[in-house]
Amino acid sequence: MSQEPVLRMQNLTKRIGNKTIVDGVSLELYPGEVFGFLGPNGAGKTTTIRMLVGLMSISEGEVSILGTSLKKDFEEAVRHVGGIVENPELYKFLSGYQNLLHYARMCDNVGPERIDEVVKLVGLEQRIHDKVKTYSLGMRQRLGLAQALLHSPKILILDEPTNGLDPSGIREIRDHLRRLAKEEGLAVMVSSHLLSEMELMCDRIGIIQQGKLIDVKRVEEFVGTSDVNDRLTTIWTVEPLEQALEVIRSFTELQPESTSRGVEITLTREQVPKLNTRLVEAEVRVYAIHSLSKTLEDKYLEVTGGSHIA
Ligand SMILES: Nc1ncnc2c1ncn2[C@@H]1O[C@H](COP(=O)(O)OP(=O)(O)OP(=O)(O)O)[C@@H](O)[C@H]1O
């Protein structure tokens, strides 16, 4: 990437007693990207994030935010960071707006216009004057997000932002985070162990295990197959079925499996159009061919050697 990173970690390390909890993590985050920090329980995600937002001291290494070292000029560096690390502290008997007003007083130069702006950014216009106790968990998370955005940070760091949300709440947060990155140019870092979530939300993913960052890739590199010799699981919607199975058996030694979704067969990429031609020549009607790419979960288990996901 050609842009300057918003956040740079170099050899970030945390030791507590004789235990190394975060072990030499180096990583850069760029404007406009959603970065997923993925790892099993106890891998060191929260500890890393706590160091990044200044809730915990750094044992070794450097963190700089927009070029300012967190160690050397903490105030200036964290000015650009918005974070939700624990559950957002909200006053439930006040309205969403009153909560934001309260936090705005603690920031420099945050006036009513900025409050209106962040309310819009998280889509809470309709309910902002209702009491927080009437909000769904998803709306509370969005209010927490609005609070974290008040001082116009350049980077948002969120620890497990979708934890405890139902599918529609997860979707709301995901859509808002993606919009903040794409439209407002924020760098967004989220930690999670919800793999399917990360796949939909993030541009890049870093896997952390036992305190070490063991892999960083773009999501499509994690899930995609590109080599013609890569094997794909393909699902064929074909009629008539018996005739199709006969053609497939004569084409490959691997046994096709007839499932409710269609005929499932593992092929190399190159074989897919060839089999299609054979089927069409045999006057089998081919309605659809789907390929099931490896899920992020498969890849994750491959990379971590089968470490369990929470
Ligand atoms: N203050 C502390 N003192 C001693 N050990 C700690 C402390 N804080 C965290 N740890 C240990 O460090 C390891 C990493 O914890 P951390 O909370 O960063 O993991 P995590 O990746 O966020 O896990 P989870 O998904 O469970 O939240 C764990 O083994 C934890 O027990």
Automatic annotation (TrEMBL):
Alphabetically ordered keywords of this record: ATP-binding, Nucleotide-binding, Transport
Domain of life: Bacteria
One Pfam assignment: ABC_tran
Domain ABC transporter residue range list: 7-235
Keyword Lyase tagged: no
InterPro entries per record: AAA+_ATPase, ABC_transporter-like_ATP-bd, ABC_transporter-like_CS, P-loop_NTPase
GO MF annotation list: ATP binding; ATP hydrolysis activity
The family this protein is said to belong to: Belongs to the ABC transporter superfamily.
PANTHER family assigned: ABC TRANSPORTER, ATP-BINDING PROTEIN (PTHR43335:SF4)
Name of protein: ABC-2 type transport system ATP-binding protein
Species in which this protein is naturally found: Desmospora activa DSM 45169
Phylogenetic classification of the source organism: Bacteria, Bacillati, Bacillota, Bacilli, Bacillales
